[in-house]
């Protein structure tokens, strides 16, 4: 790869190379628009990865017909355009979307959909600056269509996309390994703490807890969540406090794929971070959980994330005994906890939960012996997960440094 000129590149508008469609939401009051639906309906949580092959929610043909949602072809590029602007994913299935995205159907004679994916990622900040809105920022179709880009011929576009895809392919392989390890940890947790088949369980008497938990192993107890885990909700850091450098702070958009995308963090001054916000500093092995929007999204803080400050809409967890990290990680990701926060969350437009809800949650606490045995076993799995997450972070950093240079022609592919 060498530095090149843009002699063979041409200036066009996004609307010249792709048809841009908006999405829509069928009426939630009409069950026939949703129940038994088999048409993918993409929303923000579905856009976490480069590709998506399915969606969390689906609509029926009636729902599609009676809303502004449109059925998009495979390889459409989906761009979140409301509130959270700039989450991008390629649909590997025919899909519709809600109104929170603008959707690119590429003209294959003019632009390669993979190249457009990387090009849009390099343009997120520019597009964000074009957004408007009082309640939340949004980019409309007319403005997006008029955004100017410079592109090479299709062959060069595909070459550029191929180079960048190498990094994404490696990231995807590591992500699959992480998923396997996470499934292993989940199965062990379920076997020990849901099915009660922990080592030596045959010799432990089951007793009536007198609660909804029913019969539990002798020596285990029912406790309120704050008795087991320490938690802290982040402060409300305002835009006017942001600085170009300093101490990074976490927010919901950084928590993705069970990791923290520290490269996208905003900053406040080190003086403020170490002064009025000093007790909001995160530590290695803390777990952070999102408390609004997509509830329960979580990640484990690693050494390379630090220093890092807590912020609003995220809660930090630590085990009170200073040891049971593996148990904490699994409990907070388990169905029991996730269902609890979903059922307790308040707010219709933007569901959220907080300390007041956490204090109401009962949990089953194993004996210290079982907790320590679980930690000895599962911490090894989390060590492996951390290795792959760190490698993926390095791959993303390299890709993100190279991508803007390739898609703008600053560096030539040979």
Folded structure, characterized:
The chain has 414 residues and is an alpha+beta fold. The chain has twelve helices and 25 strands. It has helices at residues 14-17, 61-65, 113-122, 124-130, 141-145, 154-193, 225-228, 270-274, 325-333, 335-344, 355-358, 368-407, and strands spanning 2-3, 10-13, 18-22, 39-42, 51-52, 57-59, 77-82, 84-91, 95-97, 101-106, 148-151, 206-208, 215-217, 221-224, 229-233, 242-243, 247-249, 255-256, 259-260, 266-268, 287-290, 298-300, 314-319, 362-365, 411-412. The strands form nine sheets. A five-stranded mixed β-sheet has the order 3-10-7-8-5. It has a four-stranded antiparallel β-sheet with strand order 15-23-21-22. It starts with a strand and ends with a strand. 33% of the residues are buried.
Give a concise summary.
This protein is of the alpha+beta class and 414 residues long. The chain has 12 helices and 25 strands.
Backbone shape: globular
- How many structural domains? 2
Task: Write down how many β-strands occur, each being a DSSP E stretch of 2 or more residues.
Answer: 25
CATH superfamily of the largest domain, by name, is DNA methylase specificity domains
Tell me the β content: 15-25%
Fold-level CATH name of the largest domain: Adenine-n6-DNA-methyltransferase TaqI, Chain A, domain 2
Provide the low-confidence segments as ranges: 1-5
């Amino acid at each position: 790869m060498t530095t090149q000129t843009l002699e063979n590149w041409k200036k066009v508008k996004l609307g010249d190379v792709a048809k841009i469609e908006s999405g829509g939401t069928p009426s939630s009051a009409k069950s026939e628009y949703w129940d038994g639906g088999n048409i993918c309906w993409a929303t923000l949580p579905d856009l976490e990865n480069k590709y998506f092959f399915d969606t969390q929610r689906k609509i029926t043909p009636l729902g599609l017909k009676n809303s502004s949602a449109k059925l998009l072809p495979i390889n459409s590029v989906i761009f979140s355009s409301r509130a959270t602007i700039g989450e991008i994913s390629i649909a590997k299935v025919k899909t519709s979307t809600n109104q929170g995205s603008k959707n690119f159907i590429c003209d294959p004679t003019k632009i390669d959909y993979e190249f457009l994916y990387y090009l849009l990622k390099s343009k997120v900040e520019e597009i964000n600056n074009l957004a408007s809105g009082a309640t939340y920022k949004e980019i409309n179709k007319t403005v997006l269509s008029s955004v100017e880009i410079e592109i090479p011929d299709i062959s060069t576009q595909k070459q550029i996309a191929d180079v960048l895809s190498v990094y994404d392919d490696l990231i995807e392989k590591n992500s699959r390994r992480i998923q396997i390890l996470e499934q292993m940890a989940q199965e062990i947790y379920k076997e020990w703490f849901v099915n009660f088949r922990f080592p030596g369980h045959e010799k432990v008497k089951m007793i009536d807890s007198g609660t909804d938990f029913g019969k539990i192993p002798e020596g285990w107890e029912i406790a309120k969540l704050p008795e087991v885990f320490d938690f802290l909700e982040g402060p409300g850091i305002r835009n006017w406090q942001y600085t170009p450098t300093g101490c990074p702070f976490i927010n919901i958009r950084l928590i993705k794929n069970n990791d923290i995308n520290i490269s996208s963090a905003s900053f406040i001054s080190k003086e403020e971070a170490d002064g009025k916000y000093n007790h909001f500093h995160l530590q290695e092995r803390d777990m952070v959980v999102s408390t609004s929007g997509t509830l329960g999204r979580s990640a484990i803080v690693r050494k390379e994330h630090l220093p890092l400050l807590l912020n609003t809409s995220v809660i930090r967890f630590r085990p009170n005994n200073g040891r049971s990290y593996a148990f904490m990680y699994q409990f907070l990701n388990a169905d029991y906890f996730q269902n609890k926060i979903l059922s307790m969350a308040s707010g219709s437009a933007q569901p959220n939960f907080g300390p007041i809800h956490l204090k109401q949650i009962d949990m089953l606490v194993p004996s210290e012996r079982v907790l320590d045995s679980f930690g000895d076993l599962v911490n090894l799995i989390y060590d492996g997960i951390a290795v792959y997450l760190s490698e993926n972070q390095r791959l993303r950093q390299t890709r993100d440094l190279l991508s803007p240079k390739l898609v703008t022609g600053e560096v030539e592919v040979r």
